[in-house]
Write the structure tokens for this entry.
Amino acid sequence: MTTELLSLAKYLASSRAEFALSEMNQYLSRKYEEKELFEILKPHFYDLDLFCDAGYKCTKLVKRPLPSDENVVRELEALFKNPQLPARVEKLINSYIERSCGKDWHTGERGLLIRENIVKQKEEYWKGTGSSQYPKIRIISYLLYHFPVYFCSFQYMLLELFRGGLLTNKMSILDAGAGPGTITLSTLDFIQELQEIYSWNKIDVKLNIRIDSIERAPENIDCYKELTSLYLSGLTQENTNITINEPVHSSIEAAPALPDVDLMVFSNVLAEMNAPPSHRADVVEMAASGSKNPTMVIIEPADLDNSKALRVTQHALVKKGFAVYSPCSFIWGLECSGENCWSFQELGNIRAPDFMEKIANTGEFYRYINTDMKFSFVISRKDGLVKHKYLAKGKFMRLSNLKKHIEKRVNITVSVMSGNLGDERTFVYKICDGTSSVPCYAVLPAYHISDNNSMLFEAGYGGIVEIYGTLVRENKALSSYNLLVMRNTMVRAAE
Ligand SMILES: C[S@@+](CC[C@H](N)C(=O)[O-])C[C@H]1O[C@@H](n2cnc3c(N)ncnc32)[C@H](O)[C@@H]1O
């Protein structure tokens, strides 16, 4: 019977822009309640290109970028100004911890064990290994320590994708190495917020989202299923159909490529693979092989080793023909080597959720508080799309030529590839134009700040600036170049 219903739904979806599920009864040998039809067809709405609302009215969806009017972007930005776990997510995690470890989880022996595990997990984590004798405690530690910043950071990544028109009204998402569901939950919550903003702004957007995941640890799959289904059950989904498929229990390397994925996220997972960084690109390529033009997001920790490894993976992807959408721009049209590149985004601190404060409530508070949003990422595309199309023309010096111009003033055009690495007296930004693997920094002493050069502060991570009349200095001790920005050095936004 489902086959008959499906072909009828397919027919109606292809012949009308809108129809009511009750209309199906005109063509069927027996009568169905609308609710019954809704439940039978629900798992198929995505493949049928349909959005069906709670009143059982179905609308044909044509895949297009989500409207990103200025107002909407501004309201989303305002929402993330004071980053924190939304109350509903904090409550969800808190009750999961209480269900797993009891109401007094943060005290006595249990609290000690969790604290010990947080410290151990941090050590393993930075080394890129991941095993524990206590898988359940391991998840609890992860939720307490890592989950909140990763959840909030990913919402900024979604904002970046949204601004660039890379999120669509019909979207299939793959959460690879899903863990307890950080990325899935962060996405669900972003969509919920976005729909609320659309609704205040009287913008009617119907969404159909399908989320798949791959995860090798069974206990993480259990946690993922519990958290995502509880989150969904508490959600009002007026204008959104969401399907979360059963997680695929497998390593990403062995899982068959899913067809037609729009957004693939590898968040804090590639570094856990045994494969060397350049070979990790093979895994990403394989995962993307079933999809026409997926947006691939890879996120890794900001520490030196993991961050540098990500750029090597990124370079291997570029060699395979994938484009870097952001944060890097190949300003001179040359691929950089990806070597010796330590660059990460810094977004400030989130408010520590109550559960984090509870576990940190010891003499060594700092060991258990993790609120700093700092991470390395790359967004990549098959179709060559890049965030900044800007290409340098002749009047600028390539950073690879600086050696011949020490103590001279030059004009350069570069991407700003860090936040302020200095302090309030001397501002230091990593800069790159894709031509040199020697680290280069724009250095602006506070007493030289002027209207001519203040654009350096506004460029933002990955933003491109043209810098006129900067003094080249070699830092022999650190094998790097400092480009001194002085009062009369001009810094302009390039576009
Ligand atoms: C650090 S957690 C990241 C979880 C989540 N993506 C996040 O950002 O919070 C890494 C997760 O990837 C899983 N994992 C590691 N290597 C994997 C692989 N080769 N295939 C599938 N899952 C993997 C681990 O079991 C763990 O759940």
